[in-house]
Write a structure and sequence with these properties.
Layout: H1 12-23, E1 28-31, H2 33-39, E2 48-51, H3 55-61, E3 65-69, E4 74-78, E5 84-89, E6 91-96, E7 101-105, H4 109-114, E8 124-126, E9 131-133, H5 138-144, E10 146-147, H6 153-159, H7 162-174, E11 177-178, H8 180-188, H9 198-210, H10 215-225, H11 227-231, H12 233-236, H13 250-259, H14 266-274, H15 279-288, H16 293-304, H17 316-326, H18 331-348, H19 356-368, H20 382-387, H21 395-409, H22 416-437
Parallel strand pairs: 2-5, 10-11
Antiparallel strand pairs: 1-2, 3-4, 4-5, 6-7, 8-9
Helix pairs in contact: 7-9, 7-10, 9-14, 10-13, 13-14, 13-18, 14-16, 15-16, 17-19, 18-19, 21-22
Length: 438
């Protein structure tokens, strides 16, 4: 990616905050990802500032502040439009632990920049003077399309092993090559990634899937570096795994499907990534990375639905059973997955086994007809069975489940007059079976 802008632009509020702090005698610079992206001509809304002022001094200069991480020196300053800008006191590392660092406040900008991970993130910009401060050659690295650490690579990764994942994300998102010493240290550090908390790994994965138009680049580096094997063996198993009747392995197919899905749907992209791994592997990975229960349930359900819908022209009863098992709420997301896989097959020149549009129409027709799909959709419930004289108990669940099976075959049965006689028959059969077991 080439440089298109050497003079970053920032919201007016950034200049206002810097001017307020500097008028009070506190050196202040814009730092971090927003500066990097602005140099590349990319828009950014998350502007961070570094200052010599201590947190209490920042709070004293602005009317509306939020103590975001006051113990780490970070105060949120609210601009007039309600946008929150993080202002952090210059810091330097005192001790590092592989998962985080112990820091103390500093008085020099270079102390703060020297503790950052990569040269491209160690560039500061002064919005009042339109001055770039680049002590580690980050701008030149951006021009060369290169990612390298600030200082000795092995030391930088040992300070915080999350930097391994950040390196792959930045290289993928910005289209950068990782320089040889940094790559060597990165791959050597993969056997220490188990010290990272599952939550930090999860958030990095979601950033790759949800903030990059081309997540394939970073995910390919995950596989090549050993990160996939170290942290996500369920996905590593797809690398080199044959994909029947296709000229690519399972991992390549999954990556292509991911990129055929919307950027802002990271969980849907994750489901595409895991679909060939299977529902058990998907649930195992999501639980280990401590995804929220609702997120785990969604992805596991999408993967558990299988690689495609019922065959085109399948009997209506089969369509209803499929909808009953999968749930109609998942149909829209599943159709997106099928369409993505269909596009991949077309690009590979392979006849697509799934007609996503046709499946959508057939399944939607069943939903529009209002056929019952769950026990709760039946025209009777346990109370009706009691009123009909049946003795309540755990067998009610079996009776209602069996009635649903009958109704899935023939929705016209879904009224009490038809279901009650069937319920009595099922109750008698169950009673006889229990008697024989005694």
């Amino acid at each position: 990616m080439s440089i298109v802008r050497r003079h970053p632009r920032a919201p007016a509020a950034v200049g206002w905050i810097v001017r307020t702090l500097e008028d009070a005698g506190f050196e202040t610079w814009a730092v971090g990802g927003a500066v990097r992206d602005a140099i590349l001509g990319m828009d950014s809304v998350d502007w961070d500032l570094a200052t010599r002022a201590r947190p209490e001094q920042v709070r004293g200069l602005f009317k509306r502040t939020v103590p975001i991480g006051i113990e780490h020196g970070t105060i949120g300053v609210l601009a007039r439009d309600g946008t929150l800008y993080e202002v952090t006191t210059f810091r330097r590392d005192v001790e590092t632990h592989g998962r985080h660092a112990t820091v103390e406040f500093a008085d020099r900008l270079d102390d703060d920049l020297s503790r950052r991970d990569f040269t491209i993130n160690a560039v500061a910009w002064h919005p009042l003077r339109d001055e770039l401060h680049d002590p580690f050659g980050g701008v030149a690295d951006l021009e060369r399309g290169l990612l390298r650490t600030v200082g000795r690579p092995a030391d930088r990764f040992a300070e915080d092993y999350l930097r391994v994942l950040r390196a792959l994300r930045f290289a993928g998102r910005l289209g950068l090559a990782i320089d040889a010493p940094t790559w060597t240290a990165l791959t050597a550090a993969t056997d220490r990634l188990d010290v990272l908390s599952p939550e930090r790994v999860r958030e990095e994965l979601l950033k790759v899937l949800g903030a990059d138009e081309r997540p394939t680049r970073a995910l390919t580096l995950y596989a090549e570096s050993g990160v996939l094997a170290a942290l996500m063996p369920e996905l590593a198993a797809l690398v080199g795994a044959p994909r029947p009747n296709r000229p690519v392995d399972g991992w390549s197919f999954a990556l292509a499907a991911v990129e055929a899905l919307p950027l802002r749907r990271p969980l849907l992209r994750l489901a595409a990534l895991l679909q060939l791994a299977g529902p058990r592997a998907a649930a195992q990975l999501l639980v280990r990375l401590r995804f929220a229960n609702a997120q785990t349930e969604l992805v596991a359900a999408l993967v558990g639905a299988g690689l495609g819908p019922p065959p085109r022209g399948a009997p209506a009863a089969d369509l209803r059973r499929w909808l009953s098992r999968v749930g109609p709420a998942r149909l829209r997301d599943l159709t997106r997955l099928w369409c993505a896989q269909e596009r991949v097959d077309r690009a590979l020149g392979v006849p697509a086994p799934v007609d996503a549009a046709g499946a959508w129409r057939e399944l939607r027709r069943e939903l529009r007809d209002g056929a019952p799909l769950r026990v709760g959709d039946l025209a009777l419930d346990g109370n009706d069975l009691i009123r009909a004289g049946l003795k309540p108990g755990p067998h009610f669940g079996h009776i209602l489940g069996a009635l649903l099976e009958r109704v899935l075959d023939d929705p016209a049965l879904n009224h009490k007059d038809a279901l009650l006689p069937l319920a009595r028959e099922l109750a008698e059969e169950g009673s006889e079976a229990r008697g024989r077991r005694r």
